[in-house]
């Protein structure tokens, strides 16, 4: 698990007309991506355009990041070279039915709508539209996200590089076949919820043995963060790093024995599996709703 070398960003300090990165929907994930793109200088704020049904959200983004905003989705599509479909999954069908005819063959559509398969997206867009489907996670809000991207029928290698550059601005990226995105949803998509539960439980343990709640929570969160960073920075196997703090007859091995006795490893594996299966079921429901048979 060696650290991935980031795709070299294409900086765009003076965007040409019609070349914006357009966020169709300006919720939390879109806001995280906008922040990451600006901070990492992948694109200048003037090269970003966002639309949303909430004027107050658009005003906030304009004030905080200096991006251009609009309440007109047709205008956003017209002025963008990359369209990031960042609306809620349940309104994707409605939105694409309205703006789909406006999408040009020279544009790239990147979807972050969870559970909406590529076939359903392509069915609502003009023939030949280049689509990349993604599965990011909530840690993108802290610029530490994990995102999987999958190419649509007509997407090119250049399109995948563009999508990678976008999501590398808020974390790490892997490129996978779409058939694996349900597994990604069960692991990294749902994973932050598992980790938050573990941090909360570790903090409870600290309180039980005498630590103040705030202190216990800080130590638990920093321990999880530091352990993950150590793994990513070194590329070592987690078992080897575990052994580094597991002395014969020591405290860590006593704690590990308790975790194994409680079935932590099996429980986490089962959690990923059941979440992946649920993601698959929801994806099939969404595909059926949009009149597409999931492949």
Give the SSE map.
Elements: E1 20-24, H1 28-39, E2 48-51, H2 55-65, E3 68-70, H3 73-78, E4 80-85, H4 92-99, E5 108-111, H5 118-123, E6 130-135, E7 145-151, H6 157-168, E8 171-175, H7 181-189, H8 191-208, H9 213-234, H10 238-244, H11 251-261, H12 264-289
Parallel strand pairs: 1-2, 1-4, 2-3, 4-5, 5-6, 7-8
Antiparallel strand pairs: 6-7
Percent of residues in helical segments? 40-55%
Q: Walk across the major sheet and give the strand order.
A: 3-2-1-4-5-6-7-8
Mean pLDDT value: 92
Q: Beta-sheet strand percentage?
A: 5-15%
Number of strands: 8
Evaluate the radius of gyration: 21 Å
Low-confidence stretches: 1-14
Task: Give me the secondary-structure category.
Answer: alpha/beta
Largest sheet report: 8 strands, mixed
What spatial form do the alpha-carbon principal axes imply? Answer: elongated
Separate helix tally: 12
The ordered H/E elements are EHEHEHEHEHEEHEHHHHHH
Measured between the Cα atoms of the first and last residue, the distance is 30 Å
């Amino acid at each position: 698990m060696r650290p991935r070398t980031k795709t070299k960003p294409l900086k765009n300090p003076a965007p040409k007309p019609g070349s914006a990165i357009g966020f169709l929907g300006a919720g939390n994930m879109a806001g995280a991506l906008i922040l990451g793109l600006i901070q990492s200088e992948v694109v200048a704020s003037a090269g970003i355009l966002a639309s949303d049904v909430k004027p107050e959200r658009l005003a906030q983004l304009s004030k905080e990041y200096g991006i251009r905003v609009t309440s007109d989705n047709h205008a956003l599509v017209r002025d963008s070279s990359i369209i990031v479909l960042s609306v809620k999954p349940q309104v994707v069908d409605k939105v694409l039915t309205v703006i789909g005819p406006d999408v040009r063959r020279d544009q790239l559509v990147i979807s972050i709508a969870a559970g909406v398969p590529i076939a359903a997206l392509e069915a609502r867009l003009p023939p030949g539209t280049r689509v990349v489907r993604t599965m990011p996670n909530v840690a993108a809000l802290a610029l530490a996200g994990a995102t999987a991207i999958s190419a649509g029928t007509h997407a090119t290698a250049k399109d995948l590089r563009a999508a990678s550059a976008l999501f590398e601005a808020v974390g790490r990226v892997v490129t996978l076949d779409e058939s694996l995105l349900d597994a990604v949803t069960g692991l990294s998509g749902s994973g932050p919820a598992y980790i938050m539960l573990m941090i909360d439980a570790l903090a409870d343990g600290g309180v039980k043995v005498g630590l103040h709640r705030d202190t216990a929570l800080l130590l638990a969160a920093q321990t999880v963060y530091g352990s993950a960073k150590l793994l990513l920075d070194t590329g070592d196997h987690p078992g080897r790093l575990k052994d580094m703090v597991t002395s014969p007859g020591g405290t860590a091995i006593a704690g590990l024995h308790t975790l194994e006795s409680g079935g932590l490893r099996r429980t986490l594996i089962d959690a990923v599996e059941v979440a992946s299966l649920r993601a698959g079921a929801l994806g099939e429901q969404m595909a059926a709703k949009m009149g597409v048979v999931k492949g």
